[in-house]
Amino acid sequence: MPLNELKSLLIDGDPGTPESRIVRVMSERGTLSAAQIATATGLARSTVSTALAGLRRSGVVIEAAGGDTGKGVGRPATALALNPEAGTCVGIHLGLDGFRLVVADVSHSVIFEKTEELGRDYTPARAATAVKRAIDAAYAENSLRRSGLIGVGISVSGPVSPDGVVQRASIVPLWAGTDIRQTFGPVLQRPIFADNESNCAAIAEMMWGAATGCEDFVLFKIDVGVGGAIVHRGQVMTGVAGSAGEFGHMTIDPDGELCRCGNRGCLELYASFVRPLALAERLHGRRMTMDEVIALALEGDVGSRRLIEDTGAIAGRGLGMIGAIINPPLIVIGGRMALAGDLILEPLIAAYDKHTLIKRRDVDEAKRTRITIGRFTQNDALLGAVGLVLRHHGRLG
Ligand SMILES: [Zn+2]
């Protein structure tokens, strides 16, 4: 029975056995060859081969359909994946006025996706009940075994401490102080994993997006707020209280306006899309969305372009500081502002180069920080919530 064995190898059992190490690497990375598994786990080829034979016999690992991982000459390597029937996981993104849910299997295929509105200022208890109901309905509708659910990953719009408490400065103020484990644990009764939305977004970009294969990078998110994440050696840094990568709350102007976090002149006040949106609305004399402003800019509207260019320049200045501190090989721009593509990227890169320590001209290509648009600007946090479970990050119990 592959289900129980997979659960034990992935969630509950001794993580040090070769079988457990192989299953965890496959859960993190999806389809792999035996040679890639050996490299990723650091196990000898012969150990991997013996363990894989057992895992294939028990049905935990299968040959991936239609694929080989071979490049170059010779016989292509067999592509292996976890058996999608062996387990499923749920990702939840708690947003401003509701949540999104995705169900995926352990071979990284999305099975189901849904958005549920709860209205502004919904309480944590209400969210927990609604999430439970939505998971039950999703499993029933898709004829999935409820017992196959190996874990629920939760993305929160605010800093989350490593023990699962939502910190102040959450986009949803009502959630500050909420203990995710206490709120969701008794209702869901599954292993629960949680982290903030930007950290989840970074996990999605690392697993399937613009940072695939890159173990060191920074994610910089420009949306209603400005957020970010720092990934070092494949691990998202959370910080001692959960606020690592909160780039939006670096002080740019100590005498500036008051921020929702209680400090003055935070980067978020100047580099999120709140200010350009307000300016666009004033100019056009009507309510607008940021998507509309971006669409106008892409059509060539001079005023809208200027608003996005200015945002890019300020964001690049903030990123320049991050460059001086971390000097990452890669910066991925996420959030809805990233939909502006080169319109935001070009002024951002120019400002980054102007304000950071190591300039492009100082070093050759290999040592330059590459700045690129993320692959997932709309559903990164949601996919990353699934990634929390698959990568075993932010486990709360
Ligand atoms: Zn702030």
Automatic annotation (TrEMBL):
Signal keyword on record: no
Domain HTH iclR-type: residue ranges: 27-61
Superkingdom as given in the UniProt entry: Bacteria
Keywords: Kinase, Transferase
InterPro entries, alphabetized: ATPase_NBD (IPR043129), ROK (IPR000600), ROK_cs (IPR049874), Tscrpt_reg_IclR_N (IPR005471), WH-like_DNA-bd_sf (IPR036388), WH_DNA-bd_sf (IPR036390)
Gene Ontology molecular-function annotations: kinase activity
Family: Belongs to the ROK (NagC/XylR) family.
Protein name, per record: NBD/HSP70 family sugar kinase
